[in-house]
Specification:
This protein has 248 residues and is mainly β. The chain has one helix and 14 strands; from the N terminus they run αββββββββββββββ. The strands form three sheets. Strands 1-3-4-5-6-7-8-9 form an eight-stranded antiparallel β-barrel. A three-stranded antiparallel beta sheet has the order 10-11-14, with no helix packed on it. Strands 12-13 form a two-stranded antiparallel sheet.
């Protein structure tokens, strides 16, 4: 065999190896963008100006809050649920707890939709000088997928049985009853007792903050744009744990 044959064979093998490596890197490609917070919206009103921004990294079918190098800041991860020419939707855990990240089709705009109807509007931008990580990062003590600042209630006295009307008592060392605990029915704090989804006000949809038309509400009970509150399932009522001091 000629020297030309061996040279061509080596070139072929090297080319195949390079193409294989490129294809592997494409499968595991990761993108990281910086989004500047523009404002905070509830209903049709702007309730606050924007402050800071988040680095968000995309890897296959998930996204997450990160630093500028794509390393997670441990706020949680969100799974992609839908994709169209106009929008891409992810759902899961973030700084705010369980939320929806709704991006425009070109990923230049982001709406962070909380379950109480509050929407944080972001615009893709160049990170400010010196900014290398997300502005909002959960505190280490928050844990459990809740946003920073949430804490477990103190002096909690769990009832022996769950459900409205069931109660339990706690006695001191002298045998005197000091506390009585029960679940009571109250107006749902999320919908104010109306039973309507607070994100869409019971319509099953809401206007895009970007002016691109109506968006199917992702926060209705049952996930089918029912217009019902996700907390009370449309009943307007929830149960609240109540502890009362009793004197004897």
């Amino acid at each position: 065999m000629s020297m030309v044959f061996y040279i061509n064979k080596i070139i072929f093998l090297l080319t195949s190896l390079i193409l294989g490596l490129l294809s592997i890197s494409g499968v595991f490609a990761q993108e990281t963008y910086y989004y500047k917070q523009v404002n905070v919206v509830n209903g049709n009103s702007v309730i606050a100006k924007g402050n800071g921004g988040q680095f968000i990294s995309f890897f296959n079918d998930i996204c997450y809050d990160s630093n500028s190098k794509g390393v997670s800041v441990n706020n949680g991860t969100l799974d992609r649920k839908s994709k169209s020419a106009n929008s891409v939707q992810y759902k899961g855990l973030s700084y705010w707890g369980n939320v929806t990240y709704q991006f425009s089709g070109d990923f230049n705009k982001l709406s962070v939709i909380k379950q109480d109807g509050t929407i944080y509007v972001y615009q893709r931008a160049t990170p400010p000088a010196g900014v290398t990580t997300s502005s909002l990062i959960k505190s280490k003590s928050s844990g459990g997928g809740t946003a920073a600042g949430y804490a477990q209630p103190q002096n909690y006295y769990p009832p022996a049985n769950y459900g409205s009307g069931n109660s339990t008592t706690t006695t001191n060392s002298s045998g005197y009853t000091t506390y009585e605990s029960s679940y009571v029915s109250v107006d749902c704090h999320l919908c104010g007792g109306s039973g309507k989804c607070s994100t869409c006000n019971g319509k099953g949809w809401y206007e895009s903050p970007f002016g691109t038309g109506p968006i199917a509400c992702p926060n209705c009970y049952g996930g089918n744009q029912s217009g019902k509150c996700s907390k009370c399932k449309g009943t307007g009522k929830t149960e609240k744990f109540h502890t009362e001091k009793v004197y004897h």
